[in-house]
Specification:
Blueprint (H helix, E strand, L loop, with lengths): L4 H35 L15 H4 L1 E8 L7 E7 L4 H4 L6 E4 L7 E4 L22 E4 L2 E5 L8 H8 L9 E8 L2 E4 L4 H24 L1
Antiparallel strand pairs: 1-2, 3-8, 4-7, 5-6, 6-7
Helix pairs in contact: 1-5
Amino acid sequence: MAKDPIASLEALEKNLVKQVAGVLNKTLAQVVRKLQTQHLTGGTSDNALGKRSGTLSREIIPTPAHAEAATPTLITAAVHAGVKYAGVHFGPRGTAVTITPKNKQFLAIPTDFAKTPAGVAKGGPLDPIWGPTFINKGVIFGYLGGQQGVTEGVRQRNAAGKTVKKGEIIPLFILKKSVVVKRRIDPHIDLVLWARPKFLADLKKEALKVG
């Protein structure tokens, strides 16, 4: 008995969708790996962010390839970051984002004396960890004490052979009305254009397997 051509085409379509989704997931994994190892690790550059807490890298979440319910032959996959501030760093190369305070008069930008050696702020300007503080010419100052522990500012001074004495006045935060953050990772250039030829080459190989 001859096979139903419609049924055969439907089976072929399902098989193709499955194969394309498999190749797309492989490419997706490569994109995530590239993003985490090349753009979110190491120092800051034109297309990379210096790794500090590592939160952004850990929050890179892939959405596996899947067919849309309304259009079963449309297969999509995606990568997104699970932290609110990610959008500040991703966007067309050469663009920037201006950040302004939402509920306060100023932004408090931590100095090296308010950061860990990894570059992460040890706390906010109102945290009791700093002890007594005062403001002078747009800078919040404090006194070096045991509460802060080792900070990047102390590490740098020690590395330069300059001892920071307990009780010494140190700058903790710089008050700003706004800051401009340069977008460093361009999803289209750094990820899509990089991944496209790899995806097409793997898709061709998969087609040859069943050809």
